[in-house]
Each structure stands twice: as structure tokens, then as C-alpha cells.
Amino acid sequence: VDNDRRDLDMNSRDVDAQKLTRFVRMNELRLVTEYGPVTSIGVMQSSLEFNLLLITDKMSPKHPERMRKFRAAAELYKGKILFILLDSNLKSNERVVSYFQLKKSQLPALAIFHTPDDEHDVLTPDEISVERIQDFCNRFLQ
């Protein structure tokens, strides 16, 4: 996944079925999953209870830089939070944007969601940065 190879140290004596399963689960997901009709089922069935959405316009000239920062933050929360890209230009994503009570003028936005209890929070920063994403995630997790 993500053109990256991850290796589990099998020489360690403390590798058991549970640790092997966790390693596979953590590394089978992309760092950032793009939300769409095909991936929505996988996102909803993820074992991770926290989802962080970057709701943004993929056609924006700032998109590549936002994604670079979003991926860097995703690496920090691997196995804890599922990072999801939601393209605000797709008509099929309008329902998700309206769920978080966002307007196009408020985008880009970050929306964090706890699946078991539907608790969520939204941040509409002027600029997306790794530090801002970390602060937002840490506040919500606490």
C-alpha cells in the first residue's frame, strides 16, 4: 500500500497471532483513503473507530501541498485514526459535506468522527498544517 513496504521483525520471540493480526490490519490500509462509492463500504467497515476527513477541492492549486501535509499527519496516527480525503467537487459527496453542516465557502475543512457514538468535530483552518492536524486530533482523542 502507498508504494511502501513494511516488514514485521519475525526474529522477536514476542510475535504472536494478535501482534501479527494487528500488523496486517495497520498496514493494509492506505495512509489516506479517498472517499467514493467504491471505498465507502471499506471505510464504514474499518476496525478504526476514529475517522479524520479532509474535505477539499482536488482541483485547487493548493491540493498537492495539502495532501503532502495530510499524509505526513496520517503517518503519526497510523492504526488509530483513518485518514480520508473527500473531494468537495463530487456531487456524490454533498451529503457528507452537509452532514458536517459545512458550506463550500468554509472549505477546506477537517472533520473528525467517532463512529460508535457519532460524536464529531469540525475545524475550518485558514491553512492546513501537520501541527494543526495534530492539535485537532489530540484534542478530540482526549
TrEMBL record:
Matches recorded under InterPro entries: Thioredoxin-like_sf (IPR036249)
Highest taxon listed in the record's lineage: Eukaryota
GO terms (BP aspect): protein folding; response to endoplasmic reticulum stress
One GO location term (cellular component): endoplasmic reticulum
Any Pfam family matching the protein: Thioredoxin_6
SUPFAM superfamilies registered for this protein in UniProt: Thioredoxin-like
Family affiliation: Belongs to the protein disulfide isomerase family.
The protein, known as: ERP27 protein
Organism: Rhipidura dahli
Gene: Erp27
